[in-house]
Each structure stands twice: as structure tokens, then as C-alpha cells.
Specification:
Pfam family, one: AMMECR1
CATH architecture of the largest domain: 2-Layer Sandwich
Helix content: 25-40%
Number of strands: 6
Number of domains: 2
Organism: Scleroderma citrinum Foug A
CATH class of the largest domain: Alpha Beta
CATH superfamily of the largest domain: Hypothetical protein ph0010, domain 1
Distance between the termini: 34 Å
Number of helices: 6
CATH topology of the largest domain: Glycoprotein, Type 4 Pilin
Strand content: 25-35%
Protein name: AMMECR1 domain-containing protein
Strand order of the largest sheet: 2-1-3-6-4-5
Order of helices and strands: HEEHEEEHHHEH
InterPro entries: AMMECR1 (IPR023473), AMMECR1_dom_sf (IPR036071), AMMECR1_domain (IPR002733), AMMECR1_N (IPR027485)
Largest sheet: 6 strands, antiparallel
């Protein structure tokens, strides 16, 4: 993952957020990469345009019990714009096999899986850590490690969201902690903005107290995403339509 999200993808700054941006074909390509890696089958060449986007691939395991939400099984991506054909295949496997929070996905799990592709757009620097909209924006935070660069409330000159300052705090820490949440995660968790930022601070690796001064040290970059999700049965039908009668 890149250290800091880039500016909007060249040529895509005004992209409309509709179903034509991220399609089931993108998800099928991710599923195909995982299926072929686990079974030794041949990858089907994708038909979608090979544009470049920052992207995330999410694997969820659907519950066999009615009414239970899917369980996260892996989610990793990259903030650097990647050609979609290569980038989706790469991060389909990275999120399936290298997400340190989970064991590697195995072949027997395939029928329970669903795949989500998130293509990221509209990156903007936020004026303060509260300058974003729940349900619309994802957040990427970076801040100096408080353990190495302690501050006090009385001496901090970083802007508060409740002040009139429009300038982001600047810091030169040699160790910067970072974390991100995709746009759909925050409403799913039911967090307020402050709760989401504090959770991101914890996710970044800080286990000490989180004060207003800690939050004010955060540089927040907001972004949007276009997402599509398909399940295993959808993928099987797609693969059969492409000529695979053995799946």
C-alpha cells in the first residue's frame, strides 16, 4: 500500500459513480484468479477495459444461517492507480492469502465466498479530521507516532475541527502511522466521525490514550469508491458461460 493516497486518477477525476465504473466482470476476474490459483485451472482472459484505478478486493464468507451478515475473510488493496486486469488479479490473491488477520482461504471455502471490488476515486485533503461525510467518503489517516513525538494540549498548534483554520497540520516525523476505512465500513459499524477516526488511530497501531490533541495531529485524506459484489454461484454461471463445463 502506498504511503499517501495520490491525487484523483488521471482522466478519472470527473468519473460518474454508477454501475458502469465497477461491474460484475471485475468481480468475476477476481474470483477467477482465486479459483485458478486453488485448482490449477486456466485463467479466462478478462473482457473489461484495462483502465487504472486505486482498488481494494474484499472477500466475505456468507453464513449458512439465514439473516446472519457475511463475515470478513480478507481485504487488501492499493492506493496507487493500477491497471485493472493485473491489479484485480494480484489483490484478489493478496487479500485471500496474505491478510495477516486471517488464515489463507482454502478451496473448500469457495462456495461460501462473495467478492467485492472497490474502485477508489475523488481523493481530497480534508481541512480537519471531521471534514468528510459518513456513507460518502472513505478515510485515510496519517499521523506522527505519539510515542516518539509526544505533544501536549497546551502546546499544540494543529487545527481543531471546531476552529476556523483551513490548514492541515504539518509534521516531519520519521515514523508515520497510517490506516484507512473504505466508505461502506463506517456506516456498517454505526460509528460517528470521531469514533471512526479513533478506530482508525487504533488500527494504525497506536494503543495509548486518544485525546483531542491526538486527533488534531491526524492528516485526513477523504475519498469515494464505486463497488460491486458477486457471489460464488454468480461466478460459476459466468465461468460456465465462458465454456467451462467442469466447474
Amino acid at each position: 500500500m502506498s504511503a499517501l493516497p495520490p491525487d484523483p486518477v488521471a482522466g478519472e477525476a470527473a468519473v460518474s459513480e454508477d454501475s458502469s465504473v465497477c461491474t460484475p466482470e471485475h468481480c468475476f476476474h477476481a474470483f477467477d484468479a482465486l479459483y485458478c490459483a486453488l485448482t490449477g485451472r486456466d485463467l479466462i482472459s478478462p473482457a473489461f477495459a484495462d483502465k487504472a484505478y486505486p482498488l481494494f478486493v474484499t472477500w466475505n464468507a456468507r453464513s449458512s444461517r439465514p439473516g446472519r451478515p457475511p463475515r470478513l475473510r480478507g481485504c487488501i488493496g492499493n492506493f496507487d492507480p493500477l491497471p485493472l486486469r493485473e491489479g484485480i488479479a494480484e489483490y484478489a490473491l493478496t487479500s485471500a492469502f496474505k491478510d495477516s488477520r486471517f488464515n489463507k482461504i482454502e478451496e473448500h471455502e469457495l462456495p461460501s465466498l462473495e467478492c467485492g471490488i472497490s474502485l477508489l476515486t475523488h481523493f481530497e485533503d480534508a481541512a480537519t479530521y471531521l471534514d468528510w461525510t459518513i456513507g460518502k467518503h472513505g478515510i485515510y489517516i496519517s499521523f506522527p507516532d505519539p510515542a516518539l513525538y509526544p505533544t501536549s494540549r497546551s502546546s499544540s498548534n494543529t487545527p481543531s475541527p471546531f476552529s476556523s483554520s483551513l490548514f492541515l497540520p504539518r509534521f516531519t516525523s520519521r515514523r508515520t502511522l497510517t490506516a484507512t476505512y473504505l466508505p461502506d465500513v463506517i456506516p456498517e459499524q454505526g460509528w460517528s466521525k470521531i469514533e471512526a477516526v479513533e478506530s482508525a488511530i487504533r488500527k494504525a497501531g497506536w494503543s495509548g490514550s486518544v485525546t483531542e490533541d491526538t486527533r488534531r495531529s491526524v492528516k485526513l485524506r477523504r475519498y469515494q469508491s464505486v463497488k460491486c459484489v458477486v457471489g460464488w454461484n454468480d461466478f460459476v454461471q459466468w465461468r460456465k458461460a465462458k465454456g467451462d463445463d467442469k466447474i
